[in-house]
Write a structure and sequence with these properties.
Radius of gyration of chain A: 19 Å
Largest sheet of chain A: 5 strands, mixed
Helix content of chain A: 10-25%
Number of helices of chain A: 3
CATH superfamily of the largest domain in chain A: Nucleoside Triphosphate Pyrophosphohydrolase
Shape of chain A: globular
Order of helices and strands of chain A: EEEEEEEHEEEEHH
Oligomer: homodimer
Chain lengths: 182, 182
């Protein structure tokens, strides 16, 4: 490992994360480099499936892309929360669905280049609508139930959110238009 | 659409992107909200497959996660470049591989919540090592050829980079440990 971090410089608290510069020296390359890092909390999302084979999705306006995005329910893990508690809470708050049958599916990093946090993926089976939706004062979310068959056929038309794709690909055989084979 | 953007405030040029606040008013919710946006260039990556069924991957140290990450070759699209030119250039510079047989696989956003850019995915078949690797002065990259069969079985152990997963899932049937069915 040739990258040695020599110093961190705090830039700004940007609400969803804290931005900082990490000041590196690389002994192989003989260079110094300042890398931007967004220090962000862990997140989690869930592939929640109803008894009649529908995936519980949420659509909301996203300020990065300035458009609506169809995503799995999920959100930030609070400091005092377990991953499972966080994702169960987010599913219930955003959609009103809950269930007893949960499995961990692994994680992907948010963006290894500039962020230090992960998105942990869960599967919840046989979820049911048990609670009213309970949104934050700044959230406008529409719940959409997408049939598994439709998702398998249209996933790349419906979903442009990478962490939603990362979770879905762990449990869903996607209909490949072009395939590579060994 | 109830989110009306009233103003943008530039924060800082952070090298890989420009950070700004977008100041919104929501007429349904009756609230004002400041959203952080990272204004970033478009990116592209490629599933490049050799004649003997190996996927050309790159391993490099990532400053966000402070660890090595196994990823598809790719990078930023320069202002004067087409997507295809950019991804062909990145493949050749980072790995020395090139080929004639290219297909577009679609895109995912980098992160719809905070970023405005996309990662476009390509497939390149029958690539061959034709050139020397030509890295930037700040890049340390190791090329790794991963057999398709191994990737299918071990993808979630090998890869934690969401845009690499988003590209691979478009052309590779992944071995599902847990599956949902319609």
């Amino acid at each position: 490992m040739s990258w040695i971090k020599r110093k961190e410089t705090f830039i700004k608290d940007l609400k969803l994360f804290k931005a900082r510069w990490d000041h590196y020296h690389n002994s192989n390359l003989g260079i110094d480099l300042d890398a931007i890092v967004l220090d962000a909390p862990e997140t989690a999302n869930v592939v929640a499936v109803t008894k009649d084979n529908k995936i519980v999705m949420v659509s909301q306006y996203r300020f990065g892309t300035q458009n609506f995005s169809l995503e799995l329910p999920g959100g930030i893990v609070e400091p005092d929360e377990s991953l499972l508690n966080a994702v169960q809470r987010e599913l219930q708050e955003e959609t009103g669905f809950s269930g007893e049958n949960w499995a961990y599916l692994g994680f992907a990093y948010s963006n290894p280049v500039i962020m230090n946090n992960r998105c942990h993926h869960y599967l919840a089976r046989e979820v049911e609508k048990t609670h009213p939706v309970k949104l934050d004062s700044t959230e406008e979310i529409t719940v959409e139930l997408i049939d598994i068959k439709q998702m398998r056929n249209e996933i790349f038309d419906l979903v442009v959110h990478p962490h939603t794709l990362s979770a879905l690909m762990r449990v869903l055989s996607v209909d490949l238009k072009i395939a590579i084979h060994d």
